[in-house]
Design a protein that fits this description.
CATH superfamily of the largest domain: Lipoprotein localisation LolA/LolB/LppX
CATH class of the largest domain: Mainly Beta
CATH topology of the largest domain: outer membrane lipoprotein receptor (LolB), chain A
Number of helices: 6
CATH architecture of the largest domain: Clam
Helix content: 10-25%
Number of strands: 15
Largest sheet: 13 strands, antiparallel
Shape: globular
Length: 308
C-alpha cells in the first residue's frame, strides 16, 4: 500500500508527540510516587531516637553499680570569688540497689556528724527519707549555708518520670537533649520544684546541667556539672556548681575521694546483697567503730580510688 509523503509526516509527528508526552508524564509522576512512600512520610529527622523516660533510665544506668563511699566539700563564694564558708560532707551511695540508697552526712571541723539524711529512690516513686539525725529535714531544705538542697545533692529529679524531650542545646560545648520533667504530685512540696529542665549529653547520656522552676514558673536554681569522673568504666559527677536565684552567692561541690564500700558494710545495703554481687561468702569479724562486729565478704578488700 502506498503512503503519500504528507500522510507519512503526519503519522511520524503524532508518534513523536506521543513519545514526548509519555516521557513528560513519567517525569511528573516519579517524584509524586517517591514522596508517597510511607516509610519516608513517617520519618522525622529531628525526632530523638529515645523517649525522655528511656533517656533518664539510661542516665541512671551510667552511674557506678557498686556501693561507694565518697568524701568532698562544698565551697560557698560570692560572685567576685570571695570565700564565705566550706561544708565537708560524706556520702554513701548505692545506685545499683533497688531501690537506690543514699546516706548523706554533713561533718563538722572534727569530722563528727552534724546532720544526716538517709534516702531511697525508685524511678517514678516517692522518695523515702528513712532516717535523719539532728534537726528534722526535708529534701527542699537548704544544706547549711550553701545553695544546694538535699534534692540537688541527690539529683532526685533524675528519678521523676513523665517528661518529654523538647529540643536540643549545648552545655560545655557538647550536644545535649533538652528534657522537661514535671514534678510528680508530691514533688513540689518535697523538692521545691514544679518542673526541672535537664541538659543530657547526647553521646554519654550524662547530666550536664539542670534548671529548677517553682510552681509559678520562676527560675529558682541552676546546677552545672563542671567535670565527670570515670570509675570502673562508669561515669559519676566529680565537680559541679549550684546557684540559687536571686543570686547572692554560688556553691561549688568538689569530690575529693571515692572508694568502693565493700569491707565495712553500709547500713544502706544488707551484707548478703553486697556479697552476692561479688560472689563471696559472709564471715563475721571485729574492728568496727567502738568494737562493734562487722560482717564482710571473705577475701574482699576496700579499694581507694583517688580523684584527680
Amino acid at each position: 500500500m502506498r503512503v503519500d509523503r504528507n500522510t507519512f509526516l503526519n503519522r511520524t509527528s503524532r508518534s513523536r508527540m506521543a513519545i514526548a508526552l509519555a516521557a513528560l508524564t513519567a517525569v511528573a509522576i516519579a517524584p509524586t510516587q517517591a514522596t508517597a512512600d510511607p516509610s519516608d512520610a513517617d520519618t522525622d529527622p529531628d525526632e530523638p531516637p529515645i523517649t525522655a523516660d528511656g533517656l533518664l533510665d539510661d542516665v541512671l544506668r551510667r552511674f557506678p553499680r557498686d556501693p561507694l563511699d565518697i568524701h568532698g566539700e562544698m565551697v560557698v563564694r560570692k560572685r567576685r570569688g570571695v570565700e564565705l564558708s566550706r561544708v565537708t560532707f560524706n556520702m554513701e551511695v548505692d545506685w545499683g540497689a533497688d531501690p537506690a540508697r543514699f546516706r548523706y552526712r554533713v561533718l563538722d571541723d572534727e569530722g563528727d556528724v552534724r546532720r544526716e539524711l538517709l534516702l531511697q529512690l525508685r524511678p517514678g516513686g516517692r522518695p523515702e527519707v528513712t532516717r535523719g539525725t539532728g534537726e528534722e529535714m526535708a529534701l527542699d531544705s537548704v544544706i547549711e549555708s550553701t545553695d544546694l538542697t538535699w534534692a540537688d545533692l541527690s539529683l532526685s529529679f533524675l528519678w521523676w518520670r513523665g517528661g518529654r524531650i523538647v529540643g536540643t542545646d549545648q552545655a560545655k560545648g557538647r550536644d545535649c537533649y533538652l528534657v522537661d520533667v514535671p514534678a510528680p504530685a508530691w514533688g513540689v512540696d518535697s523538692t521545691g520544684y514544679s518542673r526541672v529542665r535537664l541538659w543530657v549529653d547526647q553521646s554519654l547520656h550524662m547530666l550536664l546541667r539542670a534548671d529548677g522552676f517553682d510552681e509559678n514558673g520562676k527560675h529558682v536554681r541552676s546546677l552545672w556539672v563542671r567535670s565527670l569522673k570515670k570509675t570502673e568504666g562508669r561515669w559519676m559527677i566529680k565537680d559541679m556548681e549550684v546557684q540559687g536565684y536571686p543570686s547572692i552567692h554560688r556553691t561549688r561541690l568538689r569530690i575529693h575521694s571515692v572508694r568502693v564500700a565493700t569491707q565495712e558494710v553500709s547500713a544502706l545495703t544488707p551484707p548478703a546483697t553486697l556479697c552476692r554481687r561479688s560472689g563471696r561468702s559472709l564471715r563475721p569479724t571485729t574492728g568496727g567503730r567502738r568494737g562493734s562486729p562487722l560482717r564482710i565478704c571473705s577475701s574482699e578488700l576496700r579499694t581507694s580510688l583517688p580523684v584527680s
